[in-house]
Amino acid sequence: MERAIVTSRLALRMPSEPATEQDAPVAQDLLDTLAAHANECVGLAANMVGVRKRIIAVDDNGTRRAMLNPEIMEKSGPYETEEGCLSLPGRRGTTRYQSIMLRWQDADMAWHEQRFSGWTAQIIQHEIDHCNGILI
User: Of 12, 17, 50, 72, whose CB neighbour count within 10 A is largest?
Assistant: First the structure.
Protein backbone atom coordinates (compact mmCIF):
# COMPACT_ATOMS: atom_id res chain seq x y z
CA MET A 1 0.00 0.00 0.00
CA GLU A 2 1.35 3.41 -0.95
CA ARG A 3 1.78 5.74 2.04
CA ALA A 4 1.96 9.52 2.37
CA ILE A 5 5.42 11.11 2.64
CA VAL A 6 6.32 12.76 5.97
CA THR A 7 7.83 16.25 5.67
CA SER A 8 8.09 17.20 9.37
CA ARG A 9 11.76 17.77 10.24
CA LEU A 10 10.97 17.02 13.90
CA ALA A 11 9.53 13.59 13.03
CA LEU A 12 12.34 12.83 10.59
CA ARG A 13 15.03 13.62 13.20
CA MET A 14 13.80 10.93 15.60
CA PRO A 15 15.99 7.79 15.40
CA SER A 16 14.24 4.57 14.39
CA GLU A 17 13.78 1.42 16.47
CA PRO A 18 14.94 -2.03 15.30
CA ALA A 19 12.54 -3.76 12.92
CA THR A 20 10.99 -7.14 13.77
CA GLU A 21 9.22 -9.77 11.69
CA GLN A 22 5.92 -8.03 12.52
CA ASP A 23 7.20 -5.06 10.48
CA ALA A 24 7.38 -6.99 7.19
CA PRO A 25 4.19 -5.27 5.91
CA VAL A 26 5.94 -1.90 6.34
CA ALA A 27 8.73 -3.13 4.07
CA GLN A 28 6.16 -3.94 1.39
CA ASP A 29 4.49 -0.53 1.88
CA LEU A 30 7.90 1.10 1.34
CA LEU A 31 8.39 -0.85 -1.88
CA ASP A 32 4.90 0.17 -3.06
CA THR A 33 5.52 3.82 -2.14
CA LEU A 34 8.92 3.77 -3.86
CA ALA A 35 7.27 2.40 -7.02
CA ALA A 36 4.61 5.14 -6.87
CA HIS A 37 7.35 7.81 -6.69
CA ALA A 38 9.76 6.16 -9.16
CA ASN A 39 9.96 9.31 -11.29
CA GLU A 40 11.31 11.39 -8.37
CA CYS A 41 12.76 9.00 -5.80
CA VAL A 42 15.29 6.13 -5.61
CA GLY A 43 15.09 5.29 -1.91
CA LEU A 44 12.89 5.55 1.17
CA ALA A 45 13.22 4.94 4.89
CA ALA A 46 10.27 3.90 7.05
CA ASN A 47 10.28 7.16 9.01
CA MET A 48 9.57 8.95 5.71
CA VAL A 49 6.17 7.22 5.73
CA GLY A 50 5.54 7.73 9.45
CA VAL A 51 6.94 4.47 10.86
CA ARG A 52 9.96 4.73 13.20
CA LYS A 53 11.50 1.36 12.31
CA ARG A 54 14.90 0.59 10.78
CA ILE A 55 13.63 -0.36 7.33
CA ILE A 56 14.72 1.05 3.99
CA ALA A 57 13.75 0.44 0.37
CA VAL A 58 16.17 1.22 -2.46
CA ASP A 59 16.26 1.05 -6.22
CA ASP A 60 19.30 -1.17 -6.83
CA ASN A 61 19.95 -0.53 -10.54
CA GLY A 62 16.31 -1.11 -11.49
CA THR A 63 15.49 -3.72 -8.84
CA ARG A 64 13.61 -2.49 -5.78
CA ARG A 65 14.85 -4.07 -2.58
CA ALA A 66 13.67 -3.75 1.05
CA MET A 67 16.21 -4.04 3.87
CA LEU A 68 15.45 -4.36 7.57
CA ASN A 69 17.97 -3.31 10.23
CA PRO A 70 20.66 -2.28 7.72
CA GLU A 71 24.15 -1.70 9.15
CA ILE A 72 27.20 -0.43 7.33
CA MET A 73 30.06 -2.73 8.36
CA GLU A 74 32.82 -1.12 6.26
CA LYS A 75 33.12 1.97 4.10
CA SER A 76 35.82 3.34 1.80
CA GLY A 77 36.42 6.07 -0.74
CA PRO A 78 34.88 9.20 0.79
CA TYR A 79 33.63 11.89 -1.62
CA GLU A 80 31.55 15.05 -1.48
CA THR A 81 28.21 15.20 -3.29
CA GLU A 82 24.83 16.95 -3.30
CA GLU A 83 21.58 15.13 -2.65
CA GLY A 84 17.90 15.85 -2.67
CA CYS A 85 15.25 14.20 -0.53
CA LEU A 86 11.59 13.45 -1.20
CA SER A 87 10.75 14.65 2.35
CA LEU A 88 12.65 17.95 2.14
CA PRO A 89 12.86 20.69 -0.50
CA GLY A 90 16.15 21.57 -2.18
CA ARG A 91 19.55 19.93 -2.39
CA ARG A 92 22.31 19.81 0.23
CA GLY A 93 25.95 18.80 0.34
CA THR A 94 27.08 15.69 2.17
CA THR A 95 29.94 13.20 2.41
CA ARG A 96 29.33 9.68 1.11
CA TYR A 97 31.52 6.62 0.52
CA GLN A 98 32.09 4.98 -2.86
CA SER A 99 31.98 1.44 -1.44
CA ILE A 100 30.19 -0.02 1.58
CA MET A 101 29.81 -3.49 3.08
CA LEU A 102 26.23 -3.80 4.27
CA ARG A 103 24.55 -6.26 6.64
CA TRP A 104 20.73 -6.39 6.71
CA GLN A 105 17.74 -8.66 7.16
CA ASP A 106 15.11 -9.48 4.58
CA ALA A 107 11.35 -9.63 5.30
CA ASP A 108 11.80 -13.21 6.60
CA MET A 109 14.46 -11.90 9.03
CA ALA A 110 17.30 -13.80 7.32
CA TRP A 111 20.64 -11.95 7.47
CA HIS A 112 22.53 -10.94 4.31
CA GLU A 113 25.88 -9.25 3.67
CA GLN A 114 26.84 -7.63 0.41
CA ARG A 115 29.19 -4.96 -0.89
CA PHE A 116 27.55 -2.07 -2.74
CA SER A 117 29.29 0.68 -4.67
CA GLY A 118 28.53 3.82 -6.65
CA TRP A 119 25.00 5.12 -6.91
CA THR A 120 23.38 2.22 -5.02
CA ALA A 121 25.82 2.68 -2.11
CA GLN A 122 24.98 6.39 -2.02
CA ILE A 123 21.24 5.69 -1.89
CA ILE A 124 21.68 3.17 0.94
CA GLN A 125 23.81 5.62 2.96
CA HIS A 126 21.17 8.36 2.57
CA GLU A 127 18.38 6.05 3.78
CA ILE A 128 20.41 4.72 6.72
CA ASP A 129 20.98 8.34 7.73
CA HIS A 130 17.19 8.69 7.83
CA CYS A 131 16.98 5.66 10.15
CA ASN A 132 19.48 7.41 12.44
CA GLY A 133 17.52 10.68 12.43
CA ILE A 134 20.17 12.41 10.29
CA LEU A 135 18.92 14.82 7.64
CA ILE A 136 21.11 16.15 4.85
Answer: 12
